[in-house]
Amino acid sequence: MTGYITSPYGPRGNGYHYGVDIGYYGEIGHPIYAARSGTAYTAEDPGGYGNYIYIQHDGGYVSEYGHLNSFGISHGQYVGQGDYIGGMGADGNAQGAHLHFEVERNGGAVSLPGYDGQNVTAGAGMSKDFPGIGGDGGGGYSWPIYSNGDQGEAVYSIQYLLEHHDYNLQYHDGIYGSEVTSTVQSFQSANGLSVDGVVGPNTWSALIVTVQSGSAYWPTYAAQHHLRYDEGHSIAVDGVYGPETQGAIESFQSGAGLTVDGIVGPNTWQALVDIGN
Ligand SMILES: [Zn+2]
To answer: Which CATH number does the domain 3-120 belong to among 1.25.40.80, 2.70.70.10, 3.40.50.1820, 1.10.8.80?
Structure first.
């Protein structure tokens, strides 16, 4: 939704606010759009969110939209990212018209970025630091920046991709330490990139290799590892692209709003490492 944050995620009063409130000059019916594709449901919580919508996404994510004035979808309808789903209202316990936007993963609330008064724009991606449900699926993902001291699934990807480029690492541990830093510097030097030991957009673009039928071991392994340990697909991590790997990639692409072709090219790599962490 386009508007401004009226109450950010975090401690509030005596409690905790597990979402972000977004207002727009009290305009009842102001349009709200799906944050990501998925199956949308209408619901009612008279003492709380009032009329609300929740959308079930891939990867265990659910996004929720509370205090609605109107429903733009029917219960159980599949919606694409950016589709209109309803209008802002003041239903339930809202004090003044606003959208309560919340994201859960596997039943637990996900911390959302944003500060009081911050302007937000419908269709614009959230902070790239946000580990949640991703950008707009049409190139709206961004390459996250990784450097010394970081850790997580994307660092495994960096380590495996460096192996593919014939750098032999002692550790495959998802930790961006001195070994990764110095190896990235070597890789950058060899590829004509600025040598800073930081994996940003240019280094990501040089590191990634398309994963598809018959593709090389390490890139395939990296994508499988990501799909299994960050996206929850219980697939074998064996460096071999087969029907199981293809199915997991297609499922991820569908949930991420990408072209579903089972091929991890630049867009899908970007979504994998941007949505994940
Ligand atoms: Zn709220």
So the answer is: 2.70.70.10
CA of 102 relative to ligand 1 center, distance in Å: 8
Distance (angstroms) between ligand 1 centre and the Cα of 165 equals 47
User: What is the Å distance from ligand 1's center to 100 Cα?
Assistant: 4
Instruction: Give the separation between CA 226 and CA 256, rounded to whole angstroms.
Output: 14
Q: Say which residues have a Cβ less than 8 Å from residue 190's Cβ, sequence separation at least 6.
A: none
For 153-275, which CATH superfamily applies?
PGBD-like superfamily/PGBD (1.10.101.10)
Does the pTM exceed 0.70? no
Q: How far is ligand 1, taken at its centre, from the CA of residue 7, in Å?
A: 7
The answer to whether the CB of 94 falls within 8 A of the CB of 50 is: yes
Q: From the first residue on, what is the mean pLDDT of each consecutive set of 10 residues in the chain (277 residues)?
A: 94 89 96 93 94 88 95 94 95 95 84 87 67 43 88 96 96 97 96 93 92 95 95 94 96 85 90 80
CA of 44 to the centre of ligand 1 (A): 15
